[in-house]
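Q: My labmate handed me this sequence with no annotations at all. I'd like to see what the chain might look like in three dimensions before we decide whether it's worth expressing. Could you predict it?
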Amino acid sequence: LSDRYSEPMPSPLAQALLAYTDRQPGESPFRTPIDGLGILRSDHPKPPRHLLQRPSLCIVAQGAKWGTFGDTKLEYKAGEALLIGVETPSVGQVFQASPDAPCLVLVFELDLAALRSVAETLPAPPRPAGQPGRGVFVTDFKGPLEDCALRLVRLLDTPEAIPTLHP
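A: Here is what I predict for the chain of 167 residues:
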């Protein structure tokens, strides 16, 4: 009984992603009614996989992943986001996931104009945790942007409102 209570409570974003993916048919990746927004869910660690990454913001709500970009290996976990600013090949792996605590990742595909626009509106642009070098870095994802992501996921529960509220 005490082990059950030693697990940290999932964040509101993780809870929303879990609820959404539980209602969806099929398997991850989950497409959403919002263009460019997807959800990745893994109930188990996965073997490494080769990918071609598009510019995107990958927000980890629960679990952990790693990705290699050239010679750089980046790990990112709950409360962090991987920002990919350029299309690039990579190898990635989910390494922290279980049926009780699946790895949950919200993926926003970006174009360079949108990325530039978002960066210009932030009071303090995200800072890379090390040398960005290849247009890819991991950053903490807490506060107002996390709240915006949560509101966007909650909007998926009312698809008729998406055309009005999403833009």
